[in-house]
Structures are given as structure tokens and as C-alpha cells.
Design a protein that fits this description.
The complex is a heterodimer of chains A (276) and B (547). Chain A contains ten helices and 13 strands. Chain A is an alpha/beta fold. Chain A has two domains: 5-149, 3-Layer(aba) Sandwich (Rossmann fold); 151-275, Hypothetical Protein Tm841, Chain: A,domain 3 (2-Layer Sandwich), CATH 3.30.1180. In chain A, the strands form three sheets. Chain A has a six-stranded mixed sheet with strand order 10-9-8-13-11-12, sandwiched between helices. In chain A, strands 2-1-6-7 form a four-stranded parallel sheet, with helices on both faces. In chain A, strand 9 (184-190) and strand 10 (194-201) form a beta hairpin. In chain A, 53% of the residues are buried. Chain B has 547 residues and is α+β, with helices and mostly antiparallel strands. Chain B folds into four domains: 10-220, Alpha Horseshoe (Serine Threonine Protein Phosphatase 5, Tetratricopeptide repeat), CATH 1.25.40.340; 241-316, Alpha-Beta Plaits (2-Layer Sandwich), CATH 3.30.70; 333-442, Phosphotransferase system, mannose-type IIA component (Rossmann fold, 3-Layer(aba) Sandwich); 444-546, Hypothetical Protein Tm841, Chain: A,domain 3 (2-Layer Sandwich), CATH 3.30.1180. Helices cover 47% and strands 18% of the residues of chain B. Chain B contains 19 helices and 18 strands. The chains are: A alpha/beta (276), B alpha+beta (547). Chain A binds chain B through residues 33, 35-36, 38, 59, 62, 64, 67-69, 96, 102-103, 106-107, 165-168, 171-173, 176-183, 199-205, and chain B through 1-3, 24, 27-31, 48, 51, 210-213, 218-220, 317-322, 325, 342, 345-346, 348-351, 417-418, 421-422, 424-425, 499-500, 502, 529, 531, 533, 547.
Chain lengths: 276, 547
């Protein structure tokens, strides 16, 4: 590839394998910890394997960011045949990953690393990686990505808030959720990786309708994808519905990875997009 | 930023990163701290209180680029005092204060100075507490300080080693807490506040360690039993009120104030600066406490919680909704008429600001509703009668107050729940009313009860004692048992168009009746999701919402 700079992201980008190859994107895995066992997201364990194990596990796993050293290794490797790289990561408010990347980058002398806090999570990062990979220079890539960072959105429907709460990413009060009723909250991750509830309903089918209505109100949209955790049929249904409204969009389906899945739990659905 | 060997001293930015590390580690684990709460009346969950306190400590720190450790420590000290919640949170704020005092005027700390600051932080915490108890966060703070001091006296001492020693000292002190406190021993848990402090130190360590976090941090940490297994006994005489506030004034004397407040209650904490003092007390007479405080200066951020109520709620339902909900900025208040303890909790959990007890046979008065409406801090109020018999009185309220009152004519509990679920705090009143009405109308209600006399209604003949089913307030079915009547009612509604049945179980329904109803619905309509809630309502053994 003629590109003189590298593109790096982390496993929470839910980067489709095909894009990874096509664009030569490096993915540094976060980790899932089942008790004493540490597994690298997407390397030691696939999303499907993860959710199978989650269902069987009596205690919830925890997650951890890559170490600065793990980033340094990747940068070191890229430094051999690149002038620099852009490293696009999960919002610093949600994970220590971007901070680890920053520290790792300082350990590699003479190699320019532009660490981007995407302020988001999941496939918006994959979209940003594509934007970067299609740029000609590192500066152009950085500018194009930074310009889109405030426009990344994730609209999520979780089957239960249990996982998000256990991970400490959201309190019950924040989610406007009473303790007793099994409500379906729609959560929006917007600028600065702020997670806020935008709606709550009682049934899943109503929630899916509301998601589509919400995104309709967010036009114009540059790129759009549907994410799911073990719910491919519903995700395909949503994508089909959305393709009618956004005929120019490719609307890929993406699978939620192990680390993100630790916080969403199974049966989560997400509409992820970058506003135009 | 902190590469191996480079860490020589603790400057402002390193300390800032350490605090952020603490915050993220405590945030990740605070639920575990919450599970350790064994005191009969938690003033709130310890883990959450400490987390919120720490968040407040870090708030201003996050924005600061100060290079001097003294400046960052001062910001943390001030922030934690303003945000302190609960006992452990208040003590944590004193730990920060002691630390800030110890590092005053310093731009960077040597390992020895860091250790000394840890020790001074623990001392300050001891001084702030009226009757220091061993086996609590105080002990853990002291042992952490001691361990740090020992590590610092080693010629090879580094900052990470001192912090690692403090964390290890904290951890071993935490494990010993059950040997020091009977209540912990009885419950088979370690001290929650102490464990929280351990997490804070571990978080610091994680953030200053250069590469992988130390292995021991990733081990599953369950040396403890969940507090839910601990029986909670309510002592006679109740618990009084957990009263917390700040006093803003001049030359405030914490010792003097503490002495006076002690005569009015227990669990007294009085801490702070000459200009700002935080008070926490459990008292039967909050008014006298507040009057006393008012003599010293301006009373701010007052919170008074009835601990008997808190206690009851904890026994009934694991995890409260958090009563300390801040008022919403612009929107409308929500007031509902509800009967049944379970239903009251459900409505509260959904965000209702005031509840008037009442319903089927106990219809609340207009005055009752008016009082409730006046009690909420909003100029616009949405009122949910949740019963056909209550609607008329509810509608009268509209002209009796200066407040703008919207009555959404909910005829049943399911309609009320649906309406409240659709409520969005950020939306304007009119907009909320529209959305709530629409949702209330979408839901179908089935009410199951016994006929109180022979009658014929709506073409259905019933004998006294029969089980009868009402669909949306109309008598539609009579039969011999609950399951049969509910199944028939569902068939009438056409279950194919619905997804979820919520069963609100009334006081009269037995476990066996509930079980057989559940399994009858599931076997007849396998596509329907069934959710059971303890409604606790009288007169109706079952109320069902179908949507």
C-alpha cells in the first residue's frame, strides 16, 4: 500500500474483518477477565464464544484496557515502514485505552502518533478508521477524523441494564429506570462519550420502532450501521427498514465484541452513525 | 508519561492522574462496596457515596493543569468537602483535607513526603470523627499510612513503591476489620468504607504503574458475603432522621458545633474549614439541629431522610431508587394516586415526585391531592388518578391552586404506569401530557376480583364470590378461578397483537395462585412475555397490563 502512515484502533471499534484487511488497519485488543483468566478481545475469543460463555458464567466478567506497552509494540512495528500513524480509540470517558495509547506512543521515539479520543465506541470508530485510511497524508487523515469526532453517535437498546450498571458506566438514576419494572431504555452515546437516556419503553418492539424514529430525526447522516449482540435477525430487520429510508447508504451489520459486550450484555442492538 | 525510572516525585499532574485512576477503579468496583453495607440503616450505599464524593473531588482537578501537587490536592480537598455524602464520604473528604494540609506549599513530593502526607491524611480523618471506631475506614487509612511510611524509609523507595505499600497495607487492614468489629463478624463481611479506600489506593497504583497493572488487582475479590444475606432487624424506637447539611459562615469552630450537635443525636460528623462546615447526624429532632446550625451561619444543601422509611424500603425491595433526586430544571412535577406498597415503590422508582395513598375504596380527597401538588417544587404538575373513582376529585384540583395542573385521566394502575414510563424530565409539560396520554391509551387493563354480590352486568351473570374479570373497567368474564378468568380475558383481547403481560399481584393472592396463573398464561400464550410485580394492592388479587 502506498500509504505512508499507519492506522491503529482498538477492539471496541468492532471493525469488520474485511475492512481490516482491505485497509490494513491494526487492532489492539482490550481484555476480558473471567475470574483469573484474561482473554484478548477478538483474538483469544470471538464475540460468539464470549456470549456463550457469558450465559454460562455465574459471575460477570470485567474488562481492562491494553497496556501502554502493548500499544508501544504496535507503534514500534509500524515505525519500521511508516512515517507515523493515527491511533483512533474508544472515548477516554469510557475506558483508559486512549490514555494507554498516549503513554505507549511516548515510549516510541521519533515516530509520530496522533492519538484520537473518538469520544465514542463501536463502529463509529471503524468508520473513522476508514476515513483515515482513505486519506492521503497523516495530517489530512487526522483533520478528517477530528472533524467527525463530535458527530459520532451510538443509539443503543439494551435488553437489561444489569451489565452496564455492574460495569459502573451508568447508574440506575442516570437511566431514568425504576428498580422494579423491566424497562427498555434507549441510550445515546454522543459527544464526549456522554451516555444519556433518550427514551424508555416497556416492550422491545416498541423500542425498535423508537430507535428508527429517532434516527430519522437525525438526518443528514454520513454513515450508518446496525450493531447487535446475538440478535442478527432483529438487526437485519432494522437494516432492511432503514435501507428504505436511506437508499444511498450501505448500512453494514456489525457484531458487538467481547469487551463492549461485557457492558451491553446479550441481545443489545445499536444504531451507530456519523452525522453529516 | 510515566516511564520506568522517571517517576521521582509526585507533582500536580501525577497526583491528578492518580486521582483519576482512583475514580475509575472505584467506579468499576463500587457496586461491590455497596454489597458490603451491613449497618441496619445504610444512609445510602457506601460505595455509591464514596464514588460520588470522589467524583466531586476530581471534578475541578480534571480541568486543572497545575504543576504543583499542593494546588491539585487543594482542589480535591475542596471538591470532596462539597460533594461529601454519607459517613464514609465525609471521612474520605477529611482524608483529602489532611493530605492537602500536609502538602501545602509543595510543588512535588518525594516518596518520604508522600508517605508522610498519607499518614497525616489518616490523622486528620481520626480528628474529624467524634468517637473513632477501629475496624473502619479510619483503621484502614492509618494502616495504609503506616505501611507507606515503612516503605518510604527504605533507601530504594520510589513513589510507586510507596503507593503499592499503602495499597497493600490497606488491603491487609481491610481483611482484619471483621476481627475488630462485631457487626462485621456477625455479617461475615469486611468493612465497606475501608474497602472503598483500598480501591482508591489501588486505583492510584494502577495509574502510576508503568505497564501492566499488578496481577493481584485482577484476581476475583470475594472475601465477603453479600449483605443481602444479613438479617436486618429494626430496633424499637425507630431510627430518626439522617440529617446532612453545610454551614457557611465565619470562624466556624467545628469542635464547638460538634459538641452541641452531639447532644441532639448520634453518628455525629462535623468537619470542614472555618468558612464551610459539613454536618452529618442521625437525630430524632432535625428541626432543633437545623435551628442550632442556623445560629452559626447559612445552612446549605440540607437533606433530611427518614431512616425508618428507608429501612422499611430496604427490607421490602433490594436497592432503592435513590431518594436524593435533584429537582428537574424546567419540566413539570409528577403526582400520582397509588395504593399498595409494591405499587408505591414502582411509581416512586419511575420518578413520581409525590404519592397520595389511595385508590379503589380509599379515595383521596381533593385536599389530599392539593396538598401533594403544593408539596412538589414545580409550578406545573401532572396528576395521575389511576382509578376511575378518583378522577372527579382530581379534576377539581385544577382550579384550586396557582400551579398549572394537568390531570391525565388514567383509570387503572397499568394506564398510570404506562403514562409515567412515557414521562421525560427534559420535555415541556404539554408535550409530556400528550405523550403520556397516548401511551396510557395503548395499554389494555385486566382487573381480577371477586363479585361482592349477585348481579348481571354487561350481559355477564355473576354470583356473589365468583371470580370476575374486568377489561378496561368493563365486566366481561365470570368464572371459578383466576387462571381461567385471565386466560379468557386475554383471548378476548386477542393476544397475537400483544407482546408483554405484566402481572401486579395483590395482597390477597397466594403464592400458589400466582404460580398457577403464571403457568396458565405461559402455556396458553407461549409468545407472550410475562413479568410479575408485587403490587400489594387490596381488593384486586391480580391486575394485569397487556401491551
Amino acid at each position: 500500500m502506498a500509504r505512508t502512515f499507519g492506522v491503529v484502533t482498538d477492539s471496541t471499534a468492532d471493525l469488520p474483518a474485511e475492512w481490516r484487511e482491505r485497509y490494513g488497519i491494526e487492532v489492539v485488543p482490550l481484555k476480558v477477565l473471567f475470574g483469573k483468566e484474561t482473554l484478548r478481545d477478538g483474538v483469544d475469543m470471538t464475540s460468539d464464544e464470549f456470549f456463550t460463555r457469558l450465559a454460562a458464567s455465574s459471575s460477570l466478567p470485567t474488562t481492562s484496557a491494553p497496556s501502554p506497552g502493548e500499544f508501544a509494540e504496535v507503534y514500534q512495528r509500524l515505525a519500521k515502514d511508516h512515517d507515523g500513524c493515527i491511533s483512533i480509540h474508544i472515548g477516554a470517558r469510557l475506558s483508559a485505552t486512549a490514555e494507554a495509547a498516549r503513554v505507549g506512543a511516548e515510549a516510541v521515539e521519533g515516530f509520530k502518533v496522533n492519538v484520537i479520543d473518538s469520544q465514542s465506541v463501536s463502529m463509529p470508530l471503524a468508520f473513522l478508521c476508514r476515513v483515515a485510511a482513505e486519506s492521503e497524508t497523516l495530517d489530512q487523515a487526522t483533520a478528517a477524523v477530528e472533524q467527525r469526532v463530535p458527530k459520532c453517535r451510538v443509539l443503543a437498546l439494551l435488553d437489561t441494564l444489569r451489565y452496564l450498571e455492574m460495569g459502573g458506566r451508568l447508574s440506575r438514576a442516570q437511566a431514568m429506570i425504576g428498580t422494579m419494572l423491566d424497562l427498555k431504555p434507549l441510550l445515546l452515546v454522543s459527544e464526549n462519550a456522554e451516555i444519556k437516556p433518550v427514551d424508555r419503553v416497556r416492550t422491545r418492539s416498541r423500542a425498535i420502532q423508537r430507535m428508527i424514529e429517532f434516527v430519522r430525526g437525525e438526518q443528514p447522516i454520513e454513515r450508518l450501521a446496525v450493531m447487535h449482540a446475538q440478535a442478527p435477525d432483529e438487526a437485519e430487520g432494522i437494516a432492511a427498514e432503514l435501507r428504505k429510508e436511506f437508499p444511498d447508504q450501505e448500512i453494514p451489520l456489525g457484531q458487538i465484541g467481547c469487551v463492549l459486550g461485557t457492558h451491553t450484555g446479550p441481545k443489545a442492538l445499536g444504531l451507530v452513525y456519523i452525522k453529516a | 508519561m510515566v516511564a520506568t525510572g522517571k517517576t521521582t516525585g509526585v507533582d500536580g499532574q501525577l497526583f491528578k492522574r492518580a486521582l483519576l485512576g482512583s475514580l475509575s477503579w472505584l467506579a468499576t468496583n463500587h457496586e461491590e462496596v455497596n454489597r458490603l453495607n451491613v449497618f441496619p440503616v445504610p444512609d445510602g450505599d457506601t460505595g455509591t457515596n464514596m464514588l460520588l464524593t470522589l467524583q466531586s473531588a476530581v471534578e475541578d482537578v480534571k480541568e486543572s493543569n497545575a504543576a504543583e501537587v499542593s494546588k491539585i490536592a487543594k482542589l480535591a480537598s475542596h471538591g470532596s468537602l462539597m460533594g461529601a455524602r454519607g459517613n464514609s464520604g465525609v471521612i474520605l473528604s477529611q482524608i483529602f483535607r489532611g493530605f492537602a494540609r500536609a502538602v501545602e506549599g509543595k510543588s512535588s513530593l518525594t516518596p518520604a513526603e508522600l508517605a508522610a502526607a498519607f499518614e497525616e491524611a489518616a490523622n486528620a480523618a481520626y480528628r474529624a470523627v467524634n468517637k473513632p471506631t477501629e475496624g473502619t475506614i479510619l483503621t484502614v487509612a492509618r494502616e495504609a499510612g503506616r505501611a507507606a511510611g515503612t516503605a518510604a524509609s527504605n533507601p530504594d523507595a520510589t513513589v510507586p513503591r510507596v503507593i503499592a505499600a499503602a495499597a497493600a497495607g490497606a488491603r491487609s487492614a481491610v481483611l482484619k476489620t471483621p476481627t475488630q468489629l462485631q457487626i462485621l463478624r456477625d455479617a461475615g463481611v469486611v468493612d465497606a468504607g475501608g474497602f472503598g479506600l483500598q480501591l482508591i489506593l489501588e486505583g492510584m497504583l494502577k495509574s502510576v504503574e508503568e505497564s501492566e497493572p499488578i496481577a493481584s488487582l485482577n484476581e476475583p475479590r470475594r472475601p465477603v458475603v453479600a449483605a443481602s444475606q444479613v438479617g436486618l432487624a429494626l430496633p424499637e424506637g425507630g431510627w430518626g432522621y439522617c440529617t446532612e447539611f453545610l454551614i457557611e459562615g465565619n470562624n466556624l469552630d467545628t469542635d464547638l458545633i460538634r459538641g452541641q450537635i452531639e447532644s441532639l443525636g448520634n453518628s455525629v460528623l462535623v468537619v470542614g474549614e472555618p468558612e464551610l462546615v459539613k454536618v452529618h447526624v442521625h437525630t430524632d429532632d432535625p428541626t432543633s439541629v437545623i435551628n442550632l446550625a442556623g445560629g452559626y451561619g447559612k445552612v446549605l444543601k440540607l437533606s433530611v431522610g427518614d431512616m425508618s422509611t428507608q429501612h422499611r424500603r430496604i427490607l421490602e425491595a433490594a436497592g432503592g431508587a435513590g431518594d436524593a433526586r435533584p429537582p428537574r430544571p424546567n419540566g413539570a412535577g409528577l403526582v400520582a394516586v397509588v395504593a399498595g406498597r409494591g405499587l408505591v415503590d414502582i411509581f416512586r422508582g419511575l420518578g413520581v415526585d409525590a404519592i397520595i395513598e389511595g385508590g379503589q375504596t380509599m379515595n383521596p380527597s381533593t385536599q389530599d391531592m392539593l396538598t401533594a401538588i403544593e408539596s412538589v417544587p414545580y409550578e406545573e404538575v401532572i396528576l395521575l388518578p389511576n382509578n376511575g373513582n378518583v378522577i372527579p376529585a382530581a379534576k377539581q384540583v385544577v382550579g384550586l391552586t396557582k400551579k398549572k395542573v394537568h390531570v391525565i385521566e388514567t383509570h387503572s394502575v397499568p394506564q398510570g404506569v404506562s403514562a409515567v414510563v412515557a414521562f421525560r424530565p427534559e420535555r415541556a409539560g404539554d408535550e409530556n401530557v400528550r405523550a403520556m396520554k397516548a401511551e396510557a391509551e395503548r395499554v389494555q387493563t385486566i382487573e381480577v376480583t371477586h363479585a361482592v354480590r349477585d348481579t348481571r352486568s354487561n350481559g355477564v351473570k355473576v354470583k356473589k364470590g365468583d371470580v370476575i374479570g374486568l377489561i378496561n373497567d368493563r365486566l366481561e368474564i365470570a368464572g371459578d378461578d383466576y387462571s381461567e378468568v385471565v386466560n379468557k380475558a386475554l383471548r378476548k383481547l386477542g393476544p397475537d397483537t400483544y407482546e408483554l403481560v405484566t402481572v401486579y399481584r395483590g395482597e390477597q393472592a397466594s403464592d400458589a395462585e400466582l404460580k398457577s396463573l403464571e403457568s396458565a398464561i405461559r402455556s396458553s400464550y407461549p409468545a407472550l412475555e410475562v413479568e410479575v410485580q408485587q403490587g400489594g394492592q387490596q381488593h384486586y388479587p391480580f391486575i394485569l397490563s397487556v401491551e
